[in-house]
Design goal:
Layout (H helix, E strand, L loop, with lengths): L2 H4 L5 H11 L18 E5 L2 E4 L4 E4 L2 H4 L8 H11 L13 H13 L6 E5 L2 H18 L7 E5 L8 H5 L4 H4 L10 E3 L13 H19 L3 E6 L3 E2 L5 E2 L3 H13 L2 E5 L23 E4 L11 E5 L1 H5 L21 H16 L2 H16 L8 E7 L2 E6 L15 H11 L2 E2 L6 E4 L7 H18 L2
Parallel strand pairs: 3-15, 5-6, 5-7, 7-10, 10-11
Antiparallel strand pairs: 1-2, 2-3, 4-12, 8-9, 11-12, 13-14, 14-16
Helix pairs in contact: 4-12, 5-12, 9-10, 13-15, 14-15
Length: about 450
C-alpha cells in the first residue's frame, strides 16, 4: 500500500497538500511552506482554533485582529443564521434594509460627537480608499482643487490597495510598488520607543507635534488630510504613543484647515481600553475608518463615519457633478451588517470594557518580567494590545538582522506548543479575543516566553 492511501483525506497533511496545489496565501512567501507546516483549521471554539488532526491553538492574534468575542460566538452566529433565512444581499444603490440602518444608527450613537454619516464598504483598505477620496472630493466640491496631497506618519500602515498603501510607510509593503503610488508628506511618528533619553511619552508627543506644525505650515494649502492610527501603529511594529499627540493634532488640523482621518480599523472597538482610541484624547476626527472587529470576526465589512459638513459638500442636484460615485458590489451586505449589529450589542449588554481592563492588567503583570530579558529592549502595552521588542543588543537596541527571521522561530515554537503567535518581524505581540481567561493569558505568555528563549539562542 502506498503512502497516499495511508493519509486520511481530511487530515492536516491531505488538506495542506490540496491547498498548496491551488491556493496563494496573503502576506506569505509560499516557498516557506516547503518546510513550514500549513495548518488546516476545521473549527473555532472561543479563543481556540482546532486543526484537522484535532490539535488546538490559542488564537493570540485574534485571526489578524478581527475576532473580538471568540470564534463561533453563539449570539453573533445566531444573528447571521436568522438573516440567511430572509435576505442574503441586495443592491445598496436605491435600496436599503434594516440591518444596515440599525448598524449605522448604532455607529452614530457610539462614535465620537459630530460623526453622523456612515458610508459602508467591504474591508479596511476599502475604508481608507473611501476616506482619502472623500476628503479630496470634499475640497474639490468646496472650490479647493489645489488640495491633492496627504500627510501620514513615519512607520504608518493603512492597507495594501494602492491608495491605502500610498499613505503607508512600511517599506516591506510599499517599496515594490512605489512607482505606482502617491507620495505623501511624512511627519515623524510620536512613537514613545523612539523618544529621546529622559523623555516621557507625552514629551515625545509634544515634540513631534512641533514637527507636524512645520509640515502644515509648508503644505496645508495643498493638503486634504492628515491620516493617523490613533495610539498604536499596529502593522508598523505595534508602535505606541501618548494621547497628547492626538489632542494636539486635532487642534493643528483645525488651525490649518485640513481634515483628520482616524484609522481605527485595528484599534477600535475596545482594543485600547476605550471603545475608540480617539476617546482617550477627547477628540472627534473628520473621518473614522472602522473594520476588523466590526463584525466580531465573522464577515468582511467596513465603515467610514464622517460629519454632516462632509456629507453636505456632496449633497446637490445631480447635474452639479458633486455626487460621491464610489461603490462596492457587496456594499451594505445584510449578513455582514447583521453580524455587526449583534457584535455591537454585546458591548451594550455586557461589561466588555470593564472586563478588558482586568484582563489587560493581568497581561501586564505576566509580561512585565520580560523587561529584564537580555534580548528585550521594550515591553509596551495599550489596553488589550501588548508587544515585546526583541533585539540583538539590549544596551544599544541593535536589532537582529531581518534575514535571521527570529520572529519566525517564535511562530514555529508557538504552533508546536498550541498557540498562534505571529510576530511582526522581531516584535512579539499579543492581541487576543476578549473572552480569553486569565489562565489562558498565562499559557499564551508562557508559550511566547519559551519561544523567545528559543528564538534568541
Amino acid at each position: 500500500m502506498t503512502d497516499a492511501f495511508l493519509v486520511p483525506p481530511t487530515s492536516n497533511a491531505a488538506l495542506a497538500a490540496r491547498d498548496l496545489n491551488v491556493l496563494w496565501h496573503p502576506c506569505t512567501q509560499m516557498h516557506d511552506h516547503e518546510t513550514l507546516p500549513m495548518v488546516p483549521v476545521v473549527r473555532g471554539e472561543g479563543v481556540w482554533l482546532v486543526d484537522a488532526d484535532g490539535r488546538r491553538y490559542l488564537d493570540a492574534v485574534s485571526s489578524w485582529w478581527t475576532n473580538l468575542f471568540g470564534h463561533s460566538h453563539p449570539r453573533i452566529a445566531h444573528a447571521v443564521k436568522a438573516q440567511l433565512d430572509t435576505l442574503e444581499h441586495v443592491i445598496f444603490a436605491g435600496f436599503t434594509h434594516e440591518p444596515a440602518i440599525e448598524l449605522a444608527e448604532e455607529l452614530v450613537r457610539i462614535t465620537p460627537p459630530g460623526l453622523e454619516r456612515v458610508f459602508l464598504a467591504d474591508n479596511g483598505s476599502a475604508a481608507i480608499e473611501v476616506a482619502l477620496k472623500m476628503s479630496f472630493h470634499y475640497w474639490l466640491n468646496r472650490g479647493h482643487g489645489e488640495k491633492t496631497r496627504f500627510i501620514a506618519l513615519t512607520g504608518s500602515y493603512h492597507g495594501e490597495t494602492l491608495g491605502a498603501l500610498s499613505v503607508s510607510d512600511v517599506a516591506l509593503y510599499r517599496k515594490t510598488y512605489a512607482p505606482l503610488l502617491l507620495t505623501p508628506e511624512l511627519a515623524p511618528s510620536p512613537d514613545a520607543y523612539e523618544g529621546e533619553p529622559g523623555e516621557t511619552a507625552a514629551d515625545t508627543a509634544r515634540r513631534r507635534l512641533l514637527d507636524m506644525r512645520v509640515l502644515l505650515e509648508r503644505h496645508a494649502h495643498e493638503t486634504c488630510a492628515v491620516i493617523v492610527e490613533p495610539l498604536v501603529q499596529c502593522a508598523g511594529g505595534m508602535r505606541m504613543y501618548d494621547a497628547t499627540y492626538l489632542t494636539g493634532l486635532r487642534a493643528l488640523c483645525n488651525e490649518f484647515d485640513v481634515h483628520l482621518i482616524a484609522d481605527e480599523i485595528a484599534v477600535g472597538f475596545g482594543r485600547t481600553g476605550t471603545m475608540f482610541a480617539c476617546e482617550q484624547a477627547g477628540i472627534s476626527p473628520d473621518f473614522m475608518c472602522l473594520s476588523k472587529g466590526l463584525t466580531g470576526g465573522f464577515l468582511p465589512l467596513s465603515a467610514v463615519v464622517t460629519t454632516q459638513d462632509v456629507y453636505q459638500a456632496f449633497y446637490a442636484e445631480y447635474a452639479s457633478g458633486k455626487a460621491f460615485l464610489h461603490s462596492h458590489s457587496y456594499t451594505g451586505n445584510p449578513l455582514a451588517c447583521r453580524a455587526a449589529v449583534a457584535t455591537l450589542s454585546l458591548f451594550r449588554d455586557e461589561p466588555v470594557l470593564e472586563r478588558n481592563r482586568q484582563l489587560a492588567a493581568h497581561m501586564a503583570t505576566r509580561i512585565a518580567p520580560l523587561r529584564d530579558h537580555p534580548n528585550v529592549a521594550d515591553v509596551r502595552q495599550t489596553g488589550m494590545i501588548a508587544a515585546v521588542e526583541l533585539v540583538a543588543d539590549k544596551r544599544t537596541r541593535r536589532p537582529f538582522a531581518a534575514e535571521e527571521r527570529r520572529g519566525l522561530r517564535v511562530y514555529r515554537h508557538g504552533l508546536e506548543n498550541g498557540a498562534l503567535l505571529r510576530p511582526l518581524g522581531n516584535i512579539v505581540y499579543f492581541m487576543p479575543p476578549y473572552v480569553i481567561t486569565e489562565a489562558e493569558i498565562d499559557f499564551m505568555v508562557e508559550t511566547a516566553v519559551a519561544g523567545i528563549d528559543v528564538a534568541v539562542r
